[in-house]
Amino acid sequence: MLSSNAIRQSFKDFFESKAHKLVASAPMVIKDDPSLMFTNAGMNQFKDIILGNVAIKHPRIADSQKCLRVSGKHNDLEEVGHDTYHHTMFEMLGNWSFGDYFKKESIDWAWEFLTEIMGLDKDKLYVTVFEGSQEEGLDRDEEAATLWAQFLPGDRIINGNKKDNFWEMGDIGPCGPCSEVHIDLRSEAEKALVEGRSLVNESHPQVIEIWNLVFMQFNRKADKSLEPLPAKVIDTGMGFERLCMAVQGKTSNYDTDVFQPIIQTIAKLSGSSYLKDEKKDIAMRVIADHVRTIAFSITDGQLPSNAKAGYVIRRILRRAVRYAYTFLNQKQAFIYKLLPSMIATMGDAYPELQAQEGLIEKVIKEEEESFLRTLDTGIKLLDKVIDDSRAENKTVIDGALAFMLYDTYGFPMDLTELILKEQNMSLDVEAFNQEMQKQRERARKAAAVETGDWIVIKDGESIFVGYDCLQSEANILRYRKVKQKNKELFQLVLDRSPFYGEMGGQVGDSGWLITANEKIEIIDTKRENNLSVHLTNSLPSDLYASFTASINEPNRLAIEANHTATHLLHESLKLVLGNHVEQRGSFVSKDSLRFDFSHFQKMTDQELRSVERMVNAKVRENINLQEFVDTPIAQAKAMGAMALFGEKYGDEVRVIKYGSSIELCGGTHLASTGMIGSFRIVAESSIAAGVRRIEALTAEACENDLYAKLDKLKHIRELFQNTPNLSQSIRKFIEENSELKKKVDIFLKEKTIQIKDRLIKDRQNINDVSLFVLKGIYPAEVVKDIAFQLRGEYTQNACFIGATSMEGKPTLTLMISEDLVNRGLNASSMMRSAAKHIEGGGGGQAHFATAGGKKEDGLLQALEDLKASLNTQLL
Questions:
Q1: Bridging pattern class, strands 519-522 and 207-220
Q2: Spatial distance between the Cα atoms of 831 and 842, rounded to a whole number of angstroms
Q3: Is pLDDT of 442 > 80?
Q4: Three-state DSSP class for 638?
Q5: Nearest to 512 by CA among 496, 523, 502
Q6: Which of 54, 285, 386, 787 gives 20 to 30 Å between its CA and that of 802?
């Protein structure tokens, strides 16, 4: 039986023998495409070639691409673990032709690889072809059907509709018919009952698609019409895990050697057995799938976080933790322990996993521990909701409350339902779903972008000249209108542009397009499919004019100062902390720089000062920039250039050298380090397990920060009468304040005793219950202290009510002895009703509750409300 590693290599070897250039997988996390967060198909890294934005260097390409499908149109998350063939992270085996071969070679080679190289039984194979579309004016794909007829009888060549057999990159862009290869993995007995043809594209777990051959021959315009593509493209994608299932004779992807080592490790660590309990089996499959996604995301530079792609990764990790917690009884972090098994399976094909195993382990472990604490918090909050609902004789929990637990604390709905079921309660699922839908609608509206067709003004290629000049003559090649959040903007593509498009952590340039008659502001520049796209609020009056494209020079120089400083900072961190330091991300703008790097502990003040001094020494050396363009990647690495994990490099790269600092970088930089002026670290913090962040300033921003600190110091000195020894004066002030605080505490304790004695003397009697009432202006902590002292002295038939205020803010306090709680009194429920009089809210436990509000003159009415409620319940 072929191993998964052998299957992957066979695919690469086969297409290399067909004159295809083998390329490495692009990172799974996408950084420079605003339309995507993750690579969800093999073609993503070739979009710029397909769209014609980049010249074709290799007309034939093949690879195995890491993909992730968890959001948007391609969202397989909820199916993962529950069926046999859906995954979040998967590998896509693919071969491409850019204007070279087309349908014949694509179909011939697919058949050859599957039946001759992989040895699949041809009698188990079915194919689909596009049946045509009357509304589109498209006929059946007879060419593909005829080519398949060489290998298969007509009853196994099935017509497919537009949904299944017409592939589109998006709402606009390249598209075309496709032809899918399906395999029937059922037993002979099952086949005798139902023919395989009827199960194709019907979501049967053993009759599945394994390869999709896309024939891109059209371009979809914004008005939905189709036009022929000037250069036809072949784009094929084969699910690696599904192919392994077919070749290895399994009926589930999870039974192949891609997943089984991980699953067996899960079973061993959790004391469970696979295929013995359905719920545990699902949990093991979910965890086995998700640990791959998380590990690859971290190697590609995406750490779990609360925003965008980081939030998606955190959500996947928490989903795995939840399944381990709920179904495998894992109350401690354990998913990080699966890494050795996963890396043993995939590490040879993806060496970045082996190189970063320590970082991946630390990040996952810390995230697990954090979420387990969150689960504990969520359970306590849910317990309170259950107690409050029971006090109000409710058995159905409000779905909006459950959604708050989910949205704010990440507490899963199904875990909420499970806990409620144990308490003989239920959840208003419809209300929960309504809240979820509202959130999705808000997110959809926020992200919705209406994009028009490109209007071509002039044919030509866009060239970036911003490395060498800040101004150039330019013409508009094309433009389009975009609308987002009801704001209308225009995107322009220039034939020659000095504007740097946002990429690699460096923000985009701003500036102007200038003619003799007008000046159009460029508000930002983005990088989209390898093009610099210039954003404006309005179009020039003459789109065919020649313009002077001029960058905002002070902004560019400030950006370059910060970018250049990150190079010096990276090198200095390695020298001070060690060679384990690797860049994990960066952000440079005109105002500041942010640099994320791998390091497992907080930097000391001495280390920070050493790094700062080292960078400033390099600044004073005024080292000139050495730039090496179109350098072969092997030569660049031999020079000592630092390549970053999670970045996709071509065969030729750009090397930036400042003395001993050598990096691969596509950004813009200063001509010499002296132009940085000065460098100052303003913050160092942790952003994830094993990842630290430095924030720093350069040049004028550094000066302004220094002046602000000096002004603050001058102001503090003035507060101490311009004392010559400020530190000594502040220390003396702190000591005196501490002594005064001790005296105040003693006074408050004495005062508290006096107040308590007065309350005991003035106590009221309601139905044999001693009622202590405190009114007036008192700190909340004093009121609480008195309440608990009285509860300790009067353990039965006692109640304390505080109706107090401090600095105009009213507070209600209610304490009930335990025997009254046992009789059915509930301080929390009573408080919710009374708090309305002070326009506030609050709660607590059955024996003690508080409420704060805004309406001070409502205190007396609230007090009377509480007394009346107490009297009624004691009758």
A1: unpaired
A2: 7
A3: no
A4: helix
A5: 523
A6: 386
Q: Which residue has the tokens 């320590």?
A: 358
Q: How many CA atoms does the CB half-sphere of 313 hold within 13 Å?
A: 29
Alpha carbons 356 and 373: distance in angstroms, whole number: 26
Rounded Cα distance, 758 and 763, in Å: 8
∠851-857-859 over CA atoms, to 5°? 40
Tokens of 606: 């001495």
Helix, strand, coil share (%) of the chain residues, nearest 5: 45, 25, 30
The strand pair at 226-239 and 125-130 is best described as unpaired
Q: What digits encode the pLDDT tens for the residues 787-800? A: 999 999 999 999 99
Tokens of 436: 């979820």
Residue of 458, 533, 459, 531 whose CA lies nearest to 489: 533
Question: Among 522, 525, 467, which Cα is nearest to 498's?
Answer: 467
Structural contact between residues 816 and 827, judged by C-beta atoms closer than 8 angstroms: yes
Instruction: Yes or no: say if 797 and 818 are a contact pair by the CB < 8 Å rule.
Output: no
Residues 732-753: b if buried by 16+ CB within 10 A, e if exposed? eeeeeeeeeeeeeeeeeeeebe
Q: Does the structure show a pLDDT above 60 at 687? A: yes
DSSP string of 272-340?
--TTS-HHHHHHHHHHHHHHHHHHHHHHTT----SSHHHHHHHHHHHHHHHHHHHHS---S--GGGGHH
Which residues, in sequence order, are CB contacts of 11 under 8 Å at separation 6+?
A: 62, 64, 93, 113, 238
DSSP strand pairing (798-806 vs 769-777) = parallel
DSSP character string of 224-263: S-EEEEEEEEEEEEEEHHHHHHHHTT-SSGGGSTTTHHHH
- Please provide the average confidence, as pLDDT, over all residues in the chain: 91
724-765, pLDDT tens digit by residue? 899 999 999 999 999 999 998 888 888 899 999 999 999 999
DSSP label at residue 115: I
- 72-86, 245-259, 373-387, 629-643: which is most confident: 245-259
- What distance in Å separates the CA atoms of residue 39 and residue 69, rounded to the nearest whole number? 8
The residues near 593 (Cβ < 8 Å, ≥ 6 apart) are 562, 563, 565, 566, 569, 586, 587, 695, 696, 697, 698
Lowest mean pLDDT segment, chosen from 103-107, 282-286, 820-824 = 820-824
Asked whether residue 189 carries a pLDDT value surpassing 90, the answer given is yes
Cα dist. 810→804, 816, 862 in Å?
A: 6, 20, 11
What's the pLDDT score for residue 557? 97
The answer to whether the beta carbons of residues 747 and 777 sit under 8 Å apart is: no
Q: Which residues pair with 138 in a beta bridge?
A: 133
With a cut of 60, say whether residue 336 has pLDDT above it. yes
**Residue among 485, 406, 487 nearest 442 (CA):** 485
Local structure of 700: helix, strand or coil? helix
Give which of 108, 130, 346, 106 is closest to 237, Cα–Cα.
106
- Full-model pTM: 0.72
Q: What is the pLDDT of residue 422?
A: 77
Phi, psi angle pair for 814, to nearest 5°? -135, 125
What average pLDDT does the segment 242-253 reach?
A: 96
**721 three-class SS:** coil
pLDDT(671) > 60 = yes
Q: Which amino acid is residue 795, in one-letter code? A: T
pLDDT tens figures, 560-606: 999 999 999 999 999 999 988 989 889 999 999 999 999 989 999 99
